[in-house]
Amino acid sequence: MAKNQQRIGEQTQATPNNQSRSGAQTHATSSNQTTETDTDMNKWLVSTMTLLKSLDNGYIQSCSIPIVPEELKNSTNKEAYMPRVVTIGPRFKGSREDLLLMEEVKLRCLFYLFHRSDGDVKQFLLSCSEAIWKADEKIRASYVYMPDIKLSQQKLANIMLIDGCFLLELLIAKGMDSELRCQSSPPSPALKVLKDEDVLSDILLLENQIPIIVLHILSEILFPTKFKTADPKERIKKINNLFLSITGYSHSQVQDPNYFNSPHVIDIVHVFVNREGERKSHVVGNYVVPIDSTQHLKPKLMRCASRLQAAGVTIKLAEETANGNCCFNFLWKCFGGICIKLHNMLVTNNQVDALEEVKGMDFYFNFEKGTLEIAQLEITKTTKAKWCNVIAWEHHKNNWKCSTVVSGINGNNQINTTHLSRNFTASALIFDGLICCAADVKLLKDKNIIVDHLKMSNEELEEFLHSMSFGVDLGIVDSSYVKIVDDLNDYSHSFFVLRNLKIFSHLFKGRLEWLFKFLKQNYNFVAAMLAFLTLVQTVYTVLSYHLPK
Predict the structure, then answer these.
(1) Could you list the residue ranges that cross the membrane (predicted)?
(2) Which tens digit of pLDDT belongs to each residue from 437-446?
């Protein structure tokens, strides 16, 4: 009995101790939860602050890599927004097995790039990895769809490091190979990659992008003597010009401030093409169209190429240069080709064929004194992808970059409106208006305005060009498009009777073409023949009844 009382006493004394221990554990658990909550909140605050700071922070811009709007997609152009060979960034990573074949090539390009730099490869790898890791918030802020992907910081940093080094190696192999030599015996794999038109097209897909800040970080660490300059604009200009070079554009001295604020490759091409178009057309000021504030301006070209010719418009291929130096350019191209061949013969270590010429898409329309000049449009297997993705970028840029809030006088905020050109969108609309049947396609091909490397029929080319304007918003076009469309719709400088005869002839050909297309579909020809024979039989029966022998 005494022993039992002693045990009960010991248990009674132990109970407060156990309660104090459980209380300490509960307090520790609540403290850990509070710490985790504070950490998550701090991460969220840092992420939000990064988004706000990157709204208009040079080439670091929030939500600058969007998703293609569904209204721009249909069954004929959906594949134009998907990569064919290589994935850049997190959007399509691991989406298809055939896209994994380029991952080894990327790693080889990374290995070759690190051996171009002077120093310890392991140390460079460590420095680049740390820099990419620290830029995680800025990188995530660039993507509109990043919350849907839910990548860990490690996986995202790995993608940025490999894809960034891959792109940087392409740039250096194209424009700085002689300056940054590699001691490795095999040639750079980038030299063969640069000859693949599909790869260069995939680089220009809107959803297949990485922020250009990644290339600036890597280039400064690996090649400080070439890219780490006192003036950041020099580095920006060098990288942007290298991108223009691999995408088929001959860069010039671009002074537009937007050229230094491009957040990725598509915007670099977009700014360059639009500014080059303005330079060629000698635009001095904007064309102002007076409209009622209650009306929506959605102009459309109402005359096809054949009807424009009937109205007296002369359609011709635009000259290559505005200064008339075509002969000089021809000699320069010949001399440059000879130099490249001699270089490939002399350099025995890197036995790689000369790079095939990759041409960038450029558009030019000018209507003056009854003459419509159009730049040559070359149709290749990657034309649709390049064209569609820049159109999608122009739509996105129109929504978020038309105006910015700036500080005004006495602390008052003011809206700063930015003039944006939509050359690719306007060109798609103009070609859509110029072509209403296969006869218009033939007319433009005969004038060497359209050059089809895919050997499509005129009907297929007609469908191809119409698909480029699918889902395009007419409300985003600029004043230069409005001016040329208004002038073409109003122009008339031919004999009335002759003009009407040409128009009726063209309309008859168009309706005949439509009839042939209709009869080729499904069983329409059989149904039409049955209907025709039924009609003949009915007429014969009626005539035989009313006109008996």
Answers:
(1) 523-543
(2) 888 999 999 9
β-pair type (314-317, 371-374): parallel
Burial of 548 per CB tally in 10 Å (0-12, 13-18, 19+): exposed
Q: Which of 49, 84, 96, 92 is nearest to 67 (CA)?
A: 92
| Per-residue confidence (pLDDT) for residue 514, from 0 to 100 | 67
Q: Which of 74-83, 110-119, 187-196, 516-525 has the lowest mean pLDDT?
A: 516-525
Task: Using pLDDT thresholds of 50, 70 and 90, give the confidence band for residue 244.
Answer: very high
Q: What does DSSP assign to residue 209?
A: -
Contact 244, 259 (CB under 8 A): no
- Show Cβ contacts of residue 453 under 8 Å, excluding neighbours closer than 6 positions: 378, 379, 380, 381
What is the rounded CA–CA span in Å between residue 291 and residue 295?
7
Residues in the chain: 549
Mapped onto helix, strand or coil, the DSSP state of residue 321 is coil
Identify the three-state secondary structure at position 169: helix
Condensed to tens digits (0 to 9), the pLDDT of residues 362-419 reads: 899 999 989 999 999 999 999 999 999 999 999 988 765 544 434 343 444 333 334 4
pLDDT for 498 beyond 70: no
Alpha carbon dihedral 156, 158, 162, 167, in 10-degree steps, equals 20
Q: How far is CA 149 from CA 14, 152, 361, in A?
A: 53, 9, 32
Domain boundaries, the chain: 1-53, 70-280, 305-405+415-520
* Phi, psi (rounded to 5 degrees) for 147: -60, -25
Please check whether residue 190 is in contact with residue 352, taking contact to mean a CB–CB distance below 8 angstroms: no
| Distance separating alpha carbons of residues 516 and 513, to the nearest angstrom | 5
Hey, is 452 helix, strand or coil? Answer: strand
3-state secondary structure of 72: helix
DSSP annotation string for 488-528 = HHH---S-HHHHHHHHHHHHHHHHHHHHHHHHHSTTHHHHH
330-371 confidence digits (pLDDT tens): 444 444 444 444 444 444 344 333 444 667 788 999 999 899
More confident residue, 55 or 515: 515
- Give the three-state DSSP class for 113: helix
CB 263 within 8 A of CB 64: yes
Q: How far apart are CA 434 and CA 436, in angstroms?
A: 7
Assess contact for 255 and 233: CB atoms under 8 A: no
Measure the CA–CA gap between 168 and 536, rounded to whole angstroms.
Answer: 73
How far is 445 from 447, CA to CA, in rounded Å? Answer: 5
Assess contact for 193 and 112: CB atoms under 8 A: no
